[in-house]
Model the fold of this input.
Amino acid sequence: MNLIGPETIGPDLDTALLLCASALATAKGIGALVSVAVVDGGGNLVAFVRMDGAEIAGPTLAVDKAYTAVAHRVATDVLGALAGPGGPLQGLASAAGGRYICFGGGKPLWAEGRVVGGVGVSGGTVEQDIACVNAASDRWPYAPPVDSAS
Done:
């Protein structure tokens, strides 16, 4: 954990690499080939890993899933229902140049009641990506607020 400033806490490199390792261990266990990204509270990349043989879209999608989770303070699978046809956030996926990802694999990292980073996983099925991102976020030393959807 890195205290970046008097009011900003976010994942330092060692913590980010620990989160990546947790996601990779889960991916290996379920037979998925994934890319994993950890970003800070501003959506800036802290750590990234890509398994040998992982799909070519994974690096972009993993980073964007982490970014989306930070920007909207919610897991990306939750955004899917909200951003779909008739949802209150319909069209979100086309905003910001298409950077917002509205399917599973991204989760925000919470500390002291606010989002301070995010994790994104891409390369497996949506279910595999969610399992891997959950493994990573479970290693985060802070719990999300009780009322959060992440």
Summary: Residues 117 and 133 are 13 Å apart (CA to CA). The mean pLDDT is 91. The longest helix spans residues 13-30. The chain has four helices and six strands.
